[in-house]
Specification:
The chain contains two helices and 27 strands. With about 350 residues, it is mainly beta. The chain folds into two domains: about 60 residues, no CATH class; about 280 residues, Neuraminidase, CATH 2.120.10.30. Strands 9, 10, 11, 12 and 13 form a five-stranded antiparallel beta sheet that branches. Strands 22, 23, 24, 25 and 26 form a five-stranded antiparallel beta sheet that branches. A hairpin with a 4-residue loop joins strand 9 and strand 10.
Amino acid sequence: MNRTASSRDLTQEIGVCPLGPSRQTTHRKLTLSLAAAALFAGLTTSGALAFAGHATSGATSTFRSGMDPMTPCKVIYLSDKTGAADYLYMSGSPYTSYVPLPQMPAVDNGWGLYATKSVIYAGAAPNAINVYKPCGSALGFSLTTAGLGAPLSIAADYSGDVYATEYGTSTIDWFSGATDHPTTTDTPRSPGLPYYLAIDNVGNVYTSGWDPTNTFEQIDICTPHMASCSFCEAVPSPSWPGGVALDGSQHLIVNNEIGSLWVYNAGCGTLDTSYVYSASASPTHFSFTDITLATGENFIWGAKQFDAPQTACPTPYCMDAQAVHYNPTFGTLGVIAPAKHTPVISGDGPGGGIAVWPPGPV
C-alpha cells in the first residue's frame, strides 16, 4: 500500500473544514488549497464555529490545538469518468449559484467517490484510491488497488475498512488499516460482474451487479471482509446495475440505472417503495449512475447522465447531479426536486461517482 500518512491519524485529525491552511504537524503537512480557501471565505455564515483539535493516535502530532474559527463546509462531489475530472460544488439552494471549483487534482480522473465523516475517497485509473480531507485538495494518502479495472465504486465503514469494485471485472478490493488485503470476488453472481457497493452499520457489504442468466440487476449481501456472499434482492427487468445506498434506518436504496429507484426494508426485506424518476418517452430522459444520500437524508442525490438532448444540453454528452425527495423514517421516495441540482456540464460524459459531505448517519 502506498501511504504518506496513517489513515487512523488522518481520521482523528479531521473535524470540519478550516477557513485557511492547516498548520504544520510533526509528521506531515496537510493544507487546504488556496483556491478552496478563497471560495470558502466567500460563503456567508451566521457565526463562527469553534473546533477543539484532536490529538493523533501515537501522539506524534496534532492537527490544531485550542479553539479556531471555522466555516461550515457543505459540498457535493461529482465525477465524470468520460471527461476524466472530479468536480466540487459548494452548498446552496439551488446549487447553480456556485461554479464547480476548485476541482479535485487531475490525478483523480473521474471514477468512484465516497465520503465518510473524516475523509473523501476518490478513485483514479488505473489502480489508486486517493484520500483527502473534506473540501480540500491536499492528498493525505493513497491505497493501491489490483488495477484490473478502474475503481468504479468505493465504500467505507467507520472501522477503517474500505472496499472498491474494479470496472468490468469481478474483482473487489478490500483494505483495512495499514494492510492491503488480497482482492476478493462476489462469487454468487459469477460469471456476472459487481458494479456498485454500499456498507451497512454493522459492516455488511451490498453489491449491485448483473445476473447474466436471468438478465436483471441483482443485489448480494456479503459479510464483513467479503468472507461470504449471498443473494439479497432482485430488481425486475428492465434494469442495469446502478448505485446503492443505505439510510440510517438501514433501508436499502437501489438505482436500476434506467430511470427508477427502489427501496427495500432492512435486512434484505420486502420492497418498501419505488419511483420512476425519468420516463423513457420524455425528451429530457436521463438516468442516474451512482447515488448517495443528503446529509439529512431528506434527498437522494444521483450522478445524472443525459441520453437525449434538452434545453440545457444540446447533445447527449452532458452531466449534472439531481436530487429526489426521500423520507428516511418510512423509506418513502418522493418526486424530483427541481431546485436541488448542480449546473449542467455541456460536452462532458456521464457522471461516474457522487458523494455528499457531511455524509448521513449510516
